[in-house]
Amino acid sequence: MDFDLIVVGGGPAGMLGAAAAGAQGLKVVLLEKNDRLGKKLSLTGNGRCNVTNCGDFEDYQNHIVNNKKFLYTALHVFDSCSLTGLLRELGLRTRVEDRGRVFPASNSAGDVLKALQKYLEQNRVEVRLRSEVERVLAGNGRVQGVLVRGKGRVSGRSVLLATGGMSYRQTGSTGDGHRMALELGHNITGPFPALVPLVTAESWVKGLQGLSLKDVLAQVGDGKRAIAKRRGDLLFTHFGVSGPVILDLSSFLTREPRFPLDLKVDLLPGLTCPLVEEQLQQLFAENPGKSLKNVLGASTLAPQRLVYVLLGLSGVEGNKQAAQVNRQERGQLARVMKNLALTVLGTRPLNEAIVTSGGIDIREVNPSTLESKIVAGLYFAGEILDTDALTGGYNLQIAFSTGYLSGISAARERSEG
């Protein structure tokens, strides 16, 4: 055999898996079809890279959307403290921001990539760029290597597929790993878009393009029940809504699409409806001669650009003086501010999703080692697996944790074999 482990895919899962195996003494080669490693990693967090989240194990379980139990071992073996400790050893300082999100102190995703490349070099991992793997070679129930397009066969005792999902296709995530796994007898769930903007029906939304609402409470339902509820920032777009709170909500919607759905946005989640009415009454009493639209636009209750929408939806005339607004109209305004209604028609395409939901059927993978139950010596890590989480650094930690576990598992299997 040429190598003890062949890693296919140079993202966070593949890089950490390769380096972890190399640290255990394995002869490892990392094959990446792009001309550089970590192409998608460089884009995360708008180039800042929310590398992990410092929450405890329970916090992770609360933020993983699909197949959280499958990740028990991976998240225990290599948690966020393990990751930040490793990065510190590699010379990269990190800092914790709101909601436990961890970023490189330099605010540069490129520095995270440099640290991981350093880890690969320290552990003597051979990196081959512009090496597109066409298929995994197997015989007698065990992997034997891979076939690289235009470059022939590379033999190896074990293969780690860490090729990512199918979002951000421009970074190389084109579903290659799914196809190769299918050829070896594995089943694929989905794929579905996750952490993706939502498309809405209302015409007034387009006029608010670029407007961001801070700390709102958003809830999606199907008319009979609430499907999911999240709190955070919302962004209006030309097609609908986005922003952290919407991205999180989307991950609960795409597995069983049943659009249209109802989206309710509470602009003032810290106040009850009666308290909002009281604040409106006080605001109007303090500005009796001013027009309603100007009074609201100058207040902290709603941004100026949203005022006209709120007035239109509540049926209250914006040009009337504040002193002329009656109790019923105050109530109508308060109810709209606490319950801004939108109709969700669907999601944006999979390629615009931050992560891919779905992937290798986890029932066919040993959660303690991440080795295939179908083909010996075949491992999976990262977004290729049917696991995904909400925003905040959780998905990257899953990639690192599964990469590390698969790497040391391959090393353990080699030593025992």
List the helices and strands and how they pair.
Layout: E1 3-8, H1 12-23, E2 28-31, E3 52-53, H2 57-63, E4 64-66, H3 72-77, H4 80-89, E5 94-96, E6 101-104, H5 109-122, E7 126-128, E8 133-139, E9 142-148, E10 152-161, H6 176-183, E11 188-194, E12 198-200, E13 212-221, E14 226-236, E15 240-242, H7 244-250, E16 261-266, H8 273-286, H9 292-297, H10 304-314, H11 327-338, E17 340-347, E18 355-360, E19 378-380, E20 388-389, H12 394-416
Parallel strand pairs: 1-2, 1-10, 2-7, 10-19
Antiparallel strand pairs: 3-6, 4-20, 5-6, 8-9, 9-10, 11-18, 12-15, 12-17, 13-14, 13-16, 14-15, 16-17
Helix pairs in contact: 1-5, 1-12, 8-11, 10-11
Question: How many β-strand stretches?
Answer: 20
| Sheet with most strands | 7 strands, mixed
Quaternary: single chain
Quickly count the domains.
2
Enumerate the spans where pLDDT stays under 50 for 5 or more consecutive residues: none
Q: What is the CATH architecture term of the largest domain? A: 3-Layer(bba) Sandwich
The structure class reads: alpha+beta
